[in-house]
C-alpha cells in the first residue's frame, strides 16, 4: 500500500477517478474542490503571507531544504504515483529532480543591487514579495513543474495556491503534503478542480502573480482572466521546437541525442524536438538512423524500468497524435517507423513514429504533436532552413546540429527561440534561466532570474 497515495486520495463519493495511464486501472480519487474551497484557500494564503515574508530569507531557505529532505526520503512512493498518473518511465527520477530544483531555488542568492553611490546619496534595488502566487500546472511533468513554480515563489516570501492538471492531481497533492507538514499553516495550498476553478483562480483579485505551464490557447485565456486583477504573469506555453542538421554532420555520432531530444517522456515535453530539418546530403541516412531507434526503443508500462517509452497520458492527446499522423499519411508522407497505435500494450500506447517526405504546411509540422512522433523535413539551403524554422508562431526552444561549432553558433543566433541548444536538445538546469518567445509565452524561470520574477522591484534611495 502506498501510504502517500492514501493520504491524498478521497472516496468515490466526493472525488473523481484517476486512472493509470498505461493500464487504465484505478489509481485513486482526486478531490472535487469548488470555487468556495478556492475562496477559503486564497483567504488562508493571504492571511499567512505577511508572517511568512517576515521570517526572512535564511529561515525560508532552511525550511525549504527540510521539505527537499522529505521529498528525497519518500521519492519512491511519490515516483510510483507519478508513473501511475502520468505514465512516464522513471517517476522516481522526477521526484528526486524536484528535490534538487527545490534546493537550488532555496539556496540561490539574490543580492541587493547598488544602483548609485556618489558619497552623498545612495540608491539600492531590492526585491520584495508580491503576495499570493497562483500556480497552474500541466500533466506531463506534474511534480517537477509544480516545484518550478512553488520553490522560487516561497523563497521570495510569497504564499501559493497550486492547481494541478485535472489529469495528474494526486502526485501534486502528495508533493504538497511535504510543504504543508514543514511550513506554517496557509503558506501552501492545493486545489483540485475543473477548469472553472482554474479560471476563478486566475481572475481572483487577491492573486498577485500567476505562473502557468501548458498550452498556448489556455495561456491566452489566462491573460484575458488576469486583466481584471492585473496579476503579473509567467507563461511557459506550447513549443514546436525546430532542429537543423547541418551538412557535414556525422549522423551516427548525434543520432541517439537527436532521437531522445524528441522522444523523452514519449515526446510529451514542451521543449522536446518537434520537427527536424536535415540537409539533403544527409537526409536518408538520418531518417534511417532515427527509424532504427524508434523500432528498437522498448515501450510499455512505466512501472517496468526496462522500458524507455510509455503511453500517451490521456485520450484527448492520443487523438491529437492519431489525427496528425493520419493527416501526414493522407498527404503522401512516408512512415519510416511506427505510424500506428500499439493496442497490445494498452489503449493509449502509440508506436514511436518517424515521418519522412513531409513539408511545412502539413499539420504534423505546423502544430505541436506532443507525442511520440517526429517529422523529418529535407532542405537544400541553410538560409531556407532557418527561415522555415522561424516561420512557426511558437519559439520555446531550437537546436543546431553540426561538426563545425562556430557555424552552429552563427545559425543559433538567427533562430527565434528562448533557448537554442548546440548538438543537444531539451536539457535544462536549475541555475540557467528558461523561457519562451512569440506564442510560447514570456517571463523567465530558474536561477536568480526566476527569483526576480517572483518579486516586486523596489528602489530605496537615501
3D architecture notes:
There is one protein chain. The protein is of the alpha/beta class. It has 2 domains: 3-237 and 440-461, Aldehyde Dehydrogenase, Chain A, domain 1 (3-Layer(aba) Sandwich), CATH 3.40.605; 241-422, 3-Layer(aba) Sandwich (Aldehyde Dehydrogenase, Chain A, domain 2), CATH 3.40.309. The chain has helices spanning 3-8, 35-54, 57-73, 75-86, 91-107, 142-155, 169-182, 195-203, 216-225, 251-263, 283-296, 315-330, 363-366, 382-390, 405-414, 447-452; strands spanning 15-19, 26-31, 113-117, 122-129, 132-136, 159-163, 188-190, 207-213, 232-236, 241-245, 273-279, 334-337, 353-356, 373-379, 394-395, 397-401, 419-422, 437-438, 441-442, 455-461. Helix 3 (57-73) runs antiparallel to helix 5 (91-107) and helix 4 (75-86) packs antiparallel against helix 7. The relative contact order is 0.14.
Amino acid at each position: 500500500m502506498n501510504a502517500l497515495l492514501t493520504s491524498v486520495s478521497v472516496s468515490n463519493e466526493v472525488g473523481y477517478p484517476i486512472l493509470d495511464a498505461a493500464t487504465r486501472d484505478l489509481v485513486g480519487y482526486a478531490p472535487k474542490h469548488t470555487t468556495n474551497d478556492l475562496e477559503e484557500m486564497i483567504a488562508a494564503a493571504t492571511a499567512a503571507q505577511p508572517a511568512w515574508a517576515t521570517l526572512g530569507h535564511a529561515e525560508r531557505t532552511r525550511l525549504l531544504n527540510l521539505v527537499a529532505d522529505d521529498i528525497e526520503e519518500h521519492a519512491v512512493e511519490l515516483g510510483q504515483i507519478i508513473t501511475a498518473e502520468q505514465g512516464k518511465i522513471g517517476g522516481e527520477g522526477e521526484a528526486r529532480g524536484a528535490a534538487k530544483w527545490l534546493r537550488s531555488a532555496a539556496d540561490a542568492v539574490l543580492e541587493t543591487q547598488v544602483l548609485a553611490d556618489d558619497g552623498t546619496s545612495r540608491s539600492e534595488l531590492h526585491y520584495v514579495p508580491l503576495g499570493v502566487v497562483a500556480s497552474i500546472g500541466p500533466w506531463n511533468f506534474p511534480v517537477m513543474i509544480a516545484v518550478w513554480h512553488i520553490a522560487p515563489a516561497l523563497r521570495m516570501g510569497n504564499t501559493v495556491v497550486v492547481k494541478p492538471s485535472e489529469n495528474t492531481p494526486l502526485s501534486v497533492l502528495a508533493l504538497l503534503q511535504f510543504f504543508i507538514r514543514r511550513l506554517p499553516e496557509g503558506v501552501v495550498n492545493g486545489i483540485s478542480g475543473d477548469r472553472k476553478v482554474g479560471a476563478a483562480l486566475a481572475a481572483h483579485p487577491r492573486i498577485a502573480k500567476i505562473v502557468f505551464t501548458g498550452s498556448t490557447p489556455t495561456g491566452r485565456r489566462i491573460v484575458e482572466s488576469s486583466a481584471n486583477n492585473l496579476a503579473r504573469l509567467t507563461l511557459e506555453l506550447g513549443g514546436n521546437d525546430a532542429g537543423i542538421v547541418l551538412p557535414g554532420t556525422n549522423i551516427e555520432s548525434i543520432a541517439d541525442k537527436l532521437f531522445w531530444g524528441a522522444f523523452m517522456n514519449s515526446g510529451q515535453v514542451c521543449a522536446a524536438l518537434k520537427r527536424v530539418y536535415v540537409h539533403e546530403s544527409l537526409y536518408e541516412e538520418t531518417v534511417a538512423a532515427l527509424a532504427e531507434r524508434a523500432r528498437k526503443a522498448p515501450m510499455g508500462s512505466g512501472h517496468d524500468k526496462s522500458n524507455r517509452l510509455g503511453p500517451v497520458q490521456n485520450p484527448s492527446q492520443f487523438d491529437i497524435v492519431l489525427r496528425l499522423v493520419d493527416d501526414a499519411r493522407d498527404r503522401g508522407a512516408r512512415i519510416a517507423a511506427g505510424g500506428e497505435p500499439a493496442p497490445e500494450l494498452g489503449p493509449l500506447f502509440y508506436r514511436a513514429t518517424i515521418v519522412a517526405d513531409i513539408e511545412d504546411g502539413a499539420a504534423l509540422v505546423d502544430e505541436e504533436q506532443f507525442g511520440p512522433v517526429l517529422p523529418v523535413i529535407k532542405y537544400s539551403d541553410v538560409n531556407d532552413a532557418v527561415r522555415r524554422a522561424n516561420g512557426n508562431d511558437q519559439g520555446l526552444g531550437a537546436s543546431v546540429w553540426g561538426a563545425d561549432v562556430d557555424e552552429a553558433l552563427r545559425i543559433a543566433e538567427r533562430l527565434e527561440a528562448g533557448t537554442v541548444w548546440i548538438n543537444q536538445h531539451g536539457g535544462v538546469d536549475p541555475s540557467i534561466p528558461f523561457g519562451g518567445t512569440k506564442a510560447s509565452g514570456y517571463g523567465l524561470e530558474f536561477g536568480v532570474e526566476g527569483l526576480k520574477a517572483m518579486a516586486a522591484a523596489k528602489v530605496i534611495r537615501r
